[in-house]
Amino acid sequence: MKKSVFATAAVASLVASNMAFAEPQAEVLHWWTSGGEAKSVAVLQKEFSDNGGTWTDMPVAGGGGDAAMTALRARVLSGNAPTAVQLKGPAIQEWYEEGVLADISAVAEAEGWDNVLPASIAGHMKCEGSWCAAPVNVHRVDWIWANADVLEANGIAMPSTWAEFNAAADKLQAAGIIPLAHGGQAWQDATVFEAVALGIGGPEFFQKAFVDLDMDTLKSDTMVQVFDQMRTLRGYVDGNFAGRDWNLATAMVMNGEAAFQIMGDWAKGEFLAAGKAPGEDFLCSSTPGNGYLYVVDSFAMFDVDGDDKKAGQNLLAELIMGPNFQEVFNLNKGSIPARTDVGLDAFESCAHTSASDMSASSSEGSLLPSYAHGMALRGAQAGAITDVVTAHFNSDMSSADAVEMLANSVANSL
Length: 414
Ligand code: BGC
Known about the structure:
This protein is an alpha/beta fold. About 50% of the residues lie in helices and about 15% in strands. Helix 10 crosses helix 11, helix 10 (about 185-200) crosses helix 13 (about 220-235) and helix 13 (about 220-235) packs across helix 20. It is globular and about 65 Å long.
């Protein structure tokens, strides 16, 4: 069923009073360019045009969005901001403070977003009480993906401790299989690092280190152990890992060239887009340890001129939070809906695990924002940590030196 542009009376009167007859336009900046990602963003594109909108696509390839954020800065600095931008976490607040975001509270209030979003997610979408972004999903970062046949053929079960992971990887390496598919890009190193840190240090350690930036925790012996495990993992990646895109690493697991990948559940979007089934072709389990690292993808609207663009922003905001979009998009994307009232009946087993672990970790206080994916820290501090993680992973730096560099790098970024 097509949804009308002006689905609610409140939105209708709001939009109609300012912008009668405007045809919704949107130039949308995003970094969803892999197979599963492109299939997901196409759902929004289609709903937008089904509702009379004209979508101008501005994809900027590059996992994790670093290149997209560079492109965004250039556009805003030249006074030509895109209409809508894939943006998340504290970066939303940073752009708000620059005075360049549009207020989408009228749509959010008319559609009752506060009633259908967990308070923690709604909090990320608000800037000084007004709504400045619309959430599409919840991704989990701390996952291990595995090729089911490769594990079975080698008599290996999904590891539930890092020691088990290392033992499995040693066995696979001896059998001539690449244990860990990895792409040597800074954000991928950071993704693995934060999963290892959560597993080895636990949720409280993670909170203190990567949310509170507590110096004693950053300099602790536990952090030394985290870097030790990173050094061990470095030994399990193949010689061609430098610069490899994350989805190519996922493909190595799919085709049996490698056994495992440590990556957020956008990797599941790749397996599913390739027709692979969980439990049969690929296996998922959370990385060893307790807790849950979340990423909420969202879109912020930039303050642009023109009734057509403003109508486009209102329409996009409304569609993004629509129950149908939240289901279909997330089935493709590998994530789960941000809305609490969208059922998971159509979703596969890894999504169910994600949802139940999320609710358990929320009650236990171990639901934590991903630092590697821009949910926990502002850009300067997250960058200061990632620089060290990457420098360590790509050299023979000792764990003790990495920890010292980490504390200094964070202190200098404050
Ligand atoms: C985003 C995902 C995206 C992934 C890889 C993450 O930061 O949250 O939506 O699929 O990067 O590009």
